[in-house]
Amino acid sequence: MKAIRRFTVRPVLPDPLRPLSDLARNLRWSWHAETRDLFRSVDPERWAASGGDPVRLLGSVPPARLAELAADGPFLRRLAAVAGDLHDYTTGERWYQAQPDELPAAIAYFSPEFGITAALPQYSGGLGILAGDHLKAASDLGVPLIGVGLLYRHGYFRQTLSRDGWQQEHYPVLDPNELPVVQLEEPDGTPAQVALALPGGKQLHARIWLAQVGRVPLLMLDSDVEENDLGERGVTDRLYGGGSEHRLLQEMLLGIGGVRAVRTYCRLTGHPEPEVFHTNEGHAGFLGLERIAELCAEGLDFDSALESVRAGTVFTTHTPVPAGIDRFDRELVARHFGPGAELPRIDVDRILRLGMESYPGGEPNLFNMAVMGLRLAQRANGVSLLHGNVSREMFSGLWPGFDADEVPITSVTNGVHAPTWVAPEVFRLGARQIGAQRAEDALTVGGSDRWDAVADIPDQDIFELRRVLREQLVTEVRERLRASWRQRGAHTAELGWIDGVLDPDVLTIGFARRVPSYKRLTLMLRDRDRLMNLLLHPERPVQIVVAGKAHPADDGGKRLVQELVRFADDPRVRHRIVFLPDYGMAMAQKLYPGCDIWLNNPLRPLEACGTSGMKAALNGCLNLSVLDGWWDEWFQPDFGWAVPTADGAGTDPDHRDDIEAAALYDLLEQRVTPRFYERGQSGLPDRWIEMVRHTLSLLGPKLLAGRMVREYVERLYAPAALSHRSMGPDAARGLAEWKGRVRGAWPGVTVDHVETSAVAALAELGTTLGLRVRVALGDLGPDDVDVQVVSGRVDEEDRIGDATVVPLKPVGSPDQDGRWVYEGPLSLDRTGPFGYTVRILPAHRLMASSAELGLVAGPSEELVAAAGLLMR
Q: Which residues are the signal sequence here (predicted)?
């Protein structure tokens, strides 16, 4: 019989065990080994059955066992020590508290997904795991972050396989009362809520759930409440589910509702109000509109409120392809804003203008969430050095007249939260060398360029560590493979072969990630005979563990999964290559440490960062990857191998895949497998172990989320907080008025005449020329602009590369025609073809970048033609 109503009945813990409840509700246990060990000792079998989830564990322990523990002196002493450690962790001073006073009092961090732990399945892939690692690292560093997301009742889908290898999706219902979250409540005990206005006089209500991530609160909005109609209850049903309007409502709730949730949380708890708002990808971009509306309600006009909001906003883009950005039809967005809907006091046209693709190459009827994110943020970044370059090129249409390298998008390369992803065995080996506290500090705060203590670890210890981790992975794979085959309909009697799957002494390659086409899951299958030879080589075999989910609506991705599964089902190779369904955090934490090689072969440059290889590297796994994302930035031959790519716009995709697959096979056959199996005088793979040592000691410190969050604090959050403080109402009005005046006057700004002291087209290196420029500024004055000379080596089309920018200074007063004369030096600091130009940019002390307005004036074509030859 089926129940007509469901309750969650929680145990009543005896008073001595009450601290267990606090420990279970703070997600620090997900990366704190001592806390997990304490819960495991409560009941090892139930701990395993609960999937390592303390909330589920405590809900299943019999009262008799609880009573026994309440009288167990050694257990109570351990409990007191762990609870005391959590108190010290959450209240003591950490890295952030030792920094200068100008840092922000609080930062709100918005993301559509957060991967904190498998016990809170609110993530689909790298974006969510990155967001979770960001929160954890912020907690370790003491950064006063407030996370904001949605609570999806189905999370992301669970993946199984049909008998013929086709991906199948399942959406288990998540009950918040069974998750490690608590409901935020008003002082009278009623649930705290936010509401959004919908067209037709309806409202979208959402409750606020709180997940405590160490020191960091994570607010999660849930629309499945009684006050909503059935349609509105389903807004937070699935991560990345539904059609356009469904997604729009999710993103309005995340951005607009998220700001209201932050205000509610700060009101109820006394937490400092955020000075900086960080938008992790465009999904949360509407948060800027809500903040503009708040300021308009306080008396600011829209333009002034926009300047105030931009000053304290950071936007991070994660996608290198336009197709990865949410875009909505103009009319759909217009229907949800303005009179009779949300933000009724703001003119709908002003809202639309923030997101419309009103630039060359854009689609003028589409509202682009990333474009809005960039227009609402004074500071923006990509997530690796290469991705920063790609992003500047991709969004250059927003800054016409500027070279792509001047587009104001910087980069902060992602990092990963080492305590979450480093295997306990790896940590213990490090702690044995330098002590547990120093090892913990090295993995969390970071700050050093190298981990020199790794050099002192004996080769034998590294070799044994790697074998232990590989052996654990073999056990894990066999268990998961057996469960998968049972789900596919196989009988136990058919599955005896699984006991021989994988070998703890064979070179193990891992490949696990989402399955969009550009990540090329099946590139390894390009030449199946060569792959079979690698798998079955008599002296130097390899074995491969593959995992990944295709988006439910992506049949092309599902076909790739099926193709890989069918190959792995072949009895000739099924002991050497496996596909594990339902890739998630729990699987990943076993997979990364157990692999010797982490394979990554995307189409370059479509991998924004690719953090899975970072997690593997922190466990001593070597990377074998296309030079994309972070690997392009930090690759050295000491750390692994770079797969050559067949770049070029004219390359046929099939031919490109053939070339790159052949290069991959060549590397494996000629360089990777010989290095792994080659033995030195000690009987150990000395050269392989040396690569593992270099990966840990030289690459390891770069890969930390602690390093990443410190960069965000120093390069983005701190400057944004200073801008926010400088942008009071009067300053915001002044800047808005100034921008309006500059835009109106800009058509009258021109470079009229340029002359140098050079008399010939040839000059010697080191020569400094005098430059004299006459400019028209229209209704503007020298205080409103920068006049610059831009110089450098030029190509055959006279484009300046690797430019040097030098400001010119005004001389005297304007002439009778109102022209100003500027002068300055031009240094010829490079040999070969050399050129220069002059330009005028708007200048204001409150702008973060001279490109902010997208305005630039340069010499006319006639003036350029009259300038004659370039210096060579």
A: none
Residues 618, 622, 626, CA angle at the centre, nearest 5°?
115
Q: What is the pLDDT of residue 253?
A: 98
Q: Could you tell me if 519 and 624 lie in one domain?
A: yes
For the cut 80, the answer to whether the pLDDT of residue 761 exceeds it is no
Distance CA 284, CA 275 (A): 17
Angle at 320 between CA 316 and CA 322, to 5 degrees: 100
Whether residue 258 sits in one domain with residue 227:
yes
In a domain, 729, yes or no: no
Structure tokens at 114: 């957060």
The pLDDT of residue 254 is above 70: yes
The CA distance from 367 to 346, in Å, is 17
8 A C-beta contact, residue 384 and residue 609: yes
- Among 818, 754, 810, 768, CA closest to 787: 810
DSSP string, 151-163: --SS-SPEEEE-T
Q: Are residues 267 and 393 in the same domain?
A: yes
The Cα 829–Cα 840 span in angstroms is 23
Q: What is the 3-state secondary structure (H, E, C) of 343-363?
A: CCCCCHHHHHHHHECCCCCCC
CA 831 to chain centre: 41
User: What's the CA gap between 782 and 842, in Å, rounded?
Assistant: 10
Share of the chain above pLDDT 90, in %: 82
Q: Is 71 exposed, middle or buried (0-12, 13-18, 19+ CB in 10 A)?
A: exposed
Strands 542-547, 577-580: parallel, antiparallel or unpaired by DSSP? Answer: parallel
Under 8 Å between Cβ of 54 and 23: yes
Residue among 40, 337, 352 at smallest CA distance from 199: 337
Q: Are residues 226 and 100 in the same domain?
A: yes
Show the tokens assigned to 234. 């389903």
Residues 409-447 pLDDT 10s = 999 999 999 999 999 999 999 999 889 889 998 999 888
Residues 216 and 364 in one domain: yes
Q: How far apart are the C-alpha atoms of 720 and 714, rounded to whole Å?
A: 10
| Mean pLDDT (whole number) for 833-843 | 91
Q: Say whether both 78 and 107 belong to one domain.
A: no
> Is 698 in contact with 455 (CB distance < 8 Å)?
no
